[in-house]
Please model this.
Amino acid sequence: MSPEHEGAARVTVVVATRNRREELLAHLHHHEGPVVVVDNASEDGTAEAVRAARPDVQVVALPRNAGAVARTVGVRAARTPYVAFADDDSWWAPGALARAAAVLDAHPRVGLIAGSIAVGPQERPDPLNAVLAASPLGIPAGCAGPALLGFVGCGAIVRRSAFLAVGGFDDVVRFPGEEERVALDLFDAGWRLAYVPEVRAHHHPSPGARAATGARPSSCAAGCSPP
Model:
C-alpha cells in the first residue's frame, strides 16, 4: 500500500444525506478510505440503494431526520483517528485525506482542519477560502495554518477523539449555525482549528440545494472573527 493510501485509510469520510439518492450515488466513487453514509430518514430509498451499489460502504439509516446530529452518529461509527465530512454533492480531492492525516499527526493540538473548497465543474475557488486565509487570529504556535473559530461542514476534517469529547453536533443547533457551536466547543476545550488550503474539497452543489443557499459560507465567516 502506498503512503498516500495508508494515510487515506486513517481518515473515514462521513456523508450525511437525506432524499438525495442520485447525487449521492454519483459521487460516492470519489471518496478514498473508509466511508460511512448516515441517512436522515430518506423517503427515496437512499439507504437501500447505497447498500446495493456499494456493499463496502457502511450505511447507518436513522429513523428520523436528525439534522446535523447525523454527522456525529457517523463519527461514532468510524474507527479511524480522523474523520472527514462530506455532503452528498461533495468529495475530497485525491491525496487530500492523506495530507490531512499527516498534518494532524504533526500538530497534536489541532482538533480540526478546514480545507479549501473548489466549486462546480469550473473548479472556482469558494470565496470563503480567502476569508479563512485572512483570519485575524493569525497562526499561533502549534497551529497548522491560520487559526479559525468557524468552518464549513463539507470542508472539514476532525480529530475523532476531540470532536466526540466536546459532544460533536447536537440537537440544540441544527441548520444553519451548527458548525459555529462545534468550533467554539473545540476552542474552549483547548483545541486549535486551522485552515490548510493544500487539503482541498470539491463541491458541486445542485440547483436549489441547501449548500448553494449561502447560509454556510456567511455563517462560517462570522465564526472566523475574533470572539
